Amino acid sequence: MTFKRAALLGFLFVVIAFAFTLWIYPALPHAVPIHWGPSGHANGFAPKPWGAFIGPLTLFGIWIVVTILPSISPRGYRLEPFQAVYGTIELVLLGMFLILTMASLMAAAGQPIHITLVVPLAVGVLFVILGNYMGKMTKNFFIGIRTPWTLASDEVWSRTHRLGGWLFVLSGLAMIIEALLRLVAPALLLLTVLVPALVPVLYSYALYKRIEGFKPTDRDPS
Q1: 140-149, pLDDT tens digit by residue?
Q2: Could you give phi then psi for residue 88, rounded to 5 degrees?
Q3: Rounded distance, CA 148 to CA 205, Å?
Q4: Strand pairing of 42-47 and 31-36?
Q5: Which among 74, 148, 150, 159 has most CB atoms closer than 10 A?
Q6: Burial annotation 43-81 (CB, 10 A radius, 16+ → b, else e)
Q7: For residue 104, what is the DSSP state?
């Protein structure tokens, strides 16, 4: 999938989000819920029309960013080597935000939508897909596990992303299971997210230290 095709399909998601918002707009309350607590009850509101269109506008902003990134990536860290992977991740990310936008608007309109089920399921699926593609990412500044040590070594980048891929898949599956079994709790969800976020960072440091080492000249050019 080329960058252009992914951008066009992604823009279609943005159009769907705005069209859905316009369709459901008459059924929305004057104070639109925009945030839900762990119990599933709304605890944050915004007046129309801002409350109604904050989701589509956020989706549009994300689309602009992910569309621009390939053209501003510096030489040596281009996104073209994994263009198809980038496009797939772009669409999955936009698709997740589209689902969350539609679900939140339907819940705001009084439909029986369980936000505490939809959110972890959507994020869990995102993590599983991201984990499956993580090992195919080449070194870049915008997507992946970007630590000083992965960016300094191709070997550390590759091995860290293989580990990160497994952790993201396992974390995503855990989120899905937790959601389906209604085991979602703030502390448990935080732990599920922190493991794939922190372990690869520590691993990349330890791996770089073992492979490259930290010589005095690495820290002090003089």
Answers
A1: 989 999 999 9
A2: -65, -45
A3: 8
A4: antiparallel
A5: 150
A6: eeeeeeeebbbbbbbebbebbeebbebbeebeeeeebee
A7: H
| Residue recorded with tokens 């252009």 | 4
Amino acid identity of residue 5, one-letter, is R
**Paired tokens of 168:** 């993201």
The radius of gyration of the chain's CA atoms, rounded to the nearest angstrom, is 20
Whole-prediction pTM value? 0.85
Give the type of residue at 106.
M
All residues at 6 or more sequence positions from 64 whose CB lies less than 8 Å from its CB, including other chains: none
Residue 179 DSSP SS3: helix
H or E element in which residue 75 lies: none
Length of the chain: 222
Query: Which DSSP category does 122 fall into?
Result: H
